[in-house]
Amino acid sequence: MKTDYSRALPEEWKAMSKVFTALGDEHRQRILLLFEPGERLNVGQIAEASTLARSTVSHHLRILREANVLQSEKIAKEVWFWIHHDYLEEVFGNVLDYVHESKP
């Protein structure tokens, strides 16, 4: 067993914590599952497919964007969202690397 519990988290694990926190909510998981491969969705489209109010959807999208789970771009008056695949692959890759390294 490693005995230095107070050691600071590695930098790559700090990002992981934000992603897991963002994905720890069932509504945010459902939002993520709405996206087809390569698809971009706006708040209105997501709210239509959801049981949540548009303002609540916007709140969840902000959390997902701040955790880099989603990326966004404002075009005219509409904000479009899409899954940040490269970032998620990196974060989950760090988790898998640790799991593989810690195997007996």
Structure description:
The protein is an alpha+beta fold. The chain has one domain: Winged helix-like DNA-binding domain superfamily/Winged helix DNA-binding domain (Arc Repressor Mutant, subunit A), CATH 1.10.10.10. It contains five helices and three strands. The chain has a three-stranded antiparallel sheet with strand order 1-3-2.
Topology:
Layout: H1 11-22, H2 26-34, E1 41-42, H3 43-49, H4 54-66, E2 70-75, E3 78-83, H5 85-101
Antiparallel strand pairs: 1-3, 2-3
Poorly predicted regions are none
The main β sheet shows up as: 3 strands, antiparallel
Strand content: 5-15%
The CATH architecture? Orthogonal Bundle
Helical stretch tally: 5
Task: Determine the CATH superfamily.
Answer: Winged helix-like DNA-binding domain superfamily/Winged helix DNA-binding domain
Count of domain modules: 1
The topology string of helices and strands comes to: HHEHHEEH
N- and C-termini, Cα separation: 13 Å
Structural class: alpha+beta
> Strands across the major sheet, in which order?
1-3-2
Shape: elongated
**Percent range for helical residues?**
55-70%
Please write the CATH class name: Mainly Alpha
Q: What is the name of the CATH topology?
A: Arc Repressor Mutant, subunit A
Rounded radius of gyration (Å): 16 Å
Mean of pLDDT: 92
Number of strands: 3
Which descriptors would you attach to this protein?
alpha+beta; 104 residues; Arc Repressor Mutant, subunit A
